[in-house]
Design goal:
It is a single chain. The chain has helices at about 110-115, 140-145, 150-160, 160-185, 225-240, 280-295, 305-310, and strands at about 70, 85-95, 100-110, 120-130, 195, 200-205, 205-210, 210, 245, 255-260, 260-265, 270. It has about 325 residues and is of the alpha+beta class. A six-stranded antiparallel sheet has the order 1-5-6-4-3-2. Strands 7-8 form a two-stranded antiparallel ribbon. A two-stranded antiparallel ribbon has the order 9-12. Strand 5 and strand 6 (about 200-205) form a beta hairpin. The longest helix is centred in the middle third of the chain and has 24 residues, at about 160-185. The relative contact order is 0.14. The structure holds adenosine-5'-triphosphate (ATP) and magnesium ion. Adenosine-5'-triphosphate binds near residues 124 and 215.
């Protein structure tokens, strides 16, 4: 039975008036052959379940973990992996330009778990949009850079047919899942990527009791807090650089502050600093964006030139 997402309990976040650096750079993604699209990935077949939703409205939506591509080992103990767990959608947290992020409660209750203790985890579900009105501002460079095996798929993406849009959305989800997996394994402060199915990425929910952590843009630190947050920002960016990446779209909207701890999100366009000829420009733009926010919010020592040089020294193979 397909999960049926509701928009109940819709919540929105407030942003301040901060605007990112105006430098415009396309965001090519480095693709490898193993990221090429499955022959089976077809969306043009009619869904045999259409029309049956009402009949099954009260049925539990079973966890999709078993059938998904799973996140890296070791799987953290808090992840509910039991296939008898039930998924409950708590509505959209944020409608973004390219994806909707919603809150999911995955729970194994006594009713379904026999004698085992109850288990529960919150997940953030990032559903990349493939619909007509999605904005494709990140796709141009991406399409230039990637390789596909089949000309049918290349044509579909180039002409933006519905099938092509679905493929592009799936590739973004795959790209973000791969980058999160790599960075999480390197110990960087990013959400643990729990699972991937097509255009839907489920990851660790950053927050507590179903309440999302604020974005950095919403935080008003005093000078001591600002210095601590900036030190954490340097460290997580150093970990990215050490893994060979720049974030590629870094701004105070793509950083969460969870009880004083910085967590980077929104990483589908992460840039390969060694392989991408524009890697340095992306890194510099990221540093400009984040330092301008910190400099205006209690950390006047945040200096984009110093930060860029510090990060470049951490990139392996860039002596
Ligand atoms: N793992 C998470 N835990 C909690 N909240 C999250 C998580 N991931 C995303 N969010 C919330 O959803 C918002 C949008 O996420 P994200 O930036 O990844 O998507 P997006 O489509 O790129 O959005 P935008 O276009 O606004 O940048 C975030 O700003 C954050 O408030
Ligand atoms: Mg974002």
């Amino acid at each position: 039975m397909a999960a049926h997402r509701s928009t109940r309990g819709k919540r929105r976040f407030d942003d301040d008036g901060w605007t990112p650096s105006s430098t415009s750079i396309h965001s090519p993604i480095q693709q490898t052959d193993d990221q090429a699209i499955d022959e089976d990935h077809r969306t043009d077949d009619a869904d045999p379940l259409i029309g049956f939703d009402d009949e099954f409205e009260d049925e539990p939506v079973w966890s999709s973990y078993r059938d998904a591509t799973k996140g890296p080992d070791p799987v953290p103990a808090w992840v509910v992996t039991d296939p008898r767990a039930v998924d409950t959608d708590h509505g959209v947290l944020k409608t973004g330009k390219e994806a909707d992020v919603s809150l999911l409660d995955r729970r194994l209750t006594a009713e379904h778990a026999d004698r085992e203790p109850e288990q529960q985890c919150w997940l953030a579900v990032k559903q990349y949009r493939s619909a007509e009105h999605r904005m494709f501002h990140r796709d141009a460079g991406y399409l230039e850079g990637r390789r596909v095996r089949r000309s049918r798929e290349m044509r579909a993406m180039a002409t933006r047919t519905e099938f092509g849009r679905e493929l592009i959305a799936g590739q973004w989800a795959h790209a973000e899942f791969a980058v999160l997996s790599r960075l999480w394994q390197a110990g960087a402060a990013v959400p643990y990527p729990v699972q991937l199915i097509g255009t839907e990425l489920m990851m660790e929910f950053i927050g507590s009791d179903g309440v999302a952590a604020p974005r950095l843009a919403q935080v008003r630190p005093d000078r001591i807090e600002a210095a601590t947050l900036y030190a954490q920002m340097r460290e997580v960016l150093r970990q990215l650089a050490d893994a060979g990446y720049a974030h590629g779209d870094l701004s105070p909207y793509n950083v969460l502050v969870d009880d004083g701890r910085i967590v980077l999100i929104d990483l589908p366009q992460a840039v390969d600093l060694v392989g991408n000829p524009q890697g340095f420009a992306y890194l510099r733009r990221d540093c400009d964006n984040i330092c301008s926010w910190f400099a205006a919010h209690g950390a006047p020592h945040a200096d984009p030139v110093e930060l860029t040089e510090f990060l470049l020294r951490s990139v392996p193979g860039l002596a």
